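REVIEWER CHECKLIST
Item 1: Sequence provided? yes
Item 2: Single chain? yes
Item 3: Sequence as submitted:
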Amino acid sequence: MSLTLEIAHSIQSIDPSSWDALTEGMPLLSHAFLSALETSNSVGPGTGWQPCPLLVHDDGRLVGAMPLYVKSHSYGEYVFDWSWAEAYQRNGLNYYPKLIAAIPFSPVTSARVLVAYVANAASIQTLMLQALLEVMHKHQLSSVHILFPDQDSAALLKQAGWMQRHGVQFRWENEGFGSFDVFLGHLQQEKRKKIRQERKKVNAAGVICRRIKGPDIKEEEWDFFYQCYRNTYLEHRSTPYLSAAFFKSIAMRMPEHILLVMATLNGVPIASALNFYDQDTLYGRYWGCMQYVPNLHFELCYYQAQEFCIEENIRYFEGGAQGEHKLARGFKPKATCSFHQIADPDFAQSIADFLSRESLGVAAYTNELEQRAPFKLSAASNSPVIFTDNTE
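Item 4: Structure as written out by the authors:
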């Protein structure tokens, strides 16, 4: 065994097949997705996201990696540490730059400490975590943050003594539903009635929805989608994170993982939603509209995606950050987490105390969400009662 560790300056310097061999097919971790962020200048110089992937080679073979970025701000992370940065500033210290392991602009849980299936996998992962701390101290970074790790990465970080922060998102699960109506049959009467009414109103307005897989998306449809995406940010007086060049790049590099949902009215496109997917999970990511129609957001972003999962036998639909309204549409609360190392010992202790208090609030909030689950349960069996009537 001859392990060598490297901090690269770009994922483009890495062989795509070698990187993808470590990602277990997760589309948002793929070389195509991450390199598209770089080549489109969505990350890189001037963006506050400087790529610096961590790599471990064994006799020239890539056996370990982490998607790393040096950050000069906290935008696009979805794990909010603005109060930490403000505390540093009040004490005359610099919180930026910091180091994060994440998928930019994507609050998606997946592996973060990537490793090949080799006998010394645990040693490789330990080496990478030690390297992160060495980089933090050597380059005088304030901190290291690993955002939205999966269970395996989280267990490793917890064992290594990193500070854990808890969060919650919303995820829909396809429990082998044969149709959308079968899914609705698992919901309480009030909830399934509301969903049917929402869908009927969209249909009555004359809106036609189409689900288009990546290879079939036309250039003009991509152009319209970007108008929608950009308009969403403009309505909030913000600037889009991703450029048009990014979407054109992924359209060419990874079309098999893309689903576009388009809505038209009188033959004119009015809204769209973009999703990524693999065999197990669909990831709802971006949405926008050019003309308001009541309930259209729910139709494009939730119901069309749920129907797609049912048709394609995809088990999970990750709805992204925030949105308690997802509960009424069949989503369930899902625990998320992040892990942190702080260079300054005093701040490390203060943040550890804060995280301890915050975790109690997150636990109480999650419990409240679970109590509001929309599924009808049988008092006798504690199992879902399935309704099949369509009279509501």
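Item 5: Key structural point noted by reviewer: The chain has two domains: 3-161, 171-333.
Item 6: Recommendation: ____
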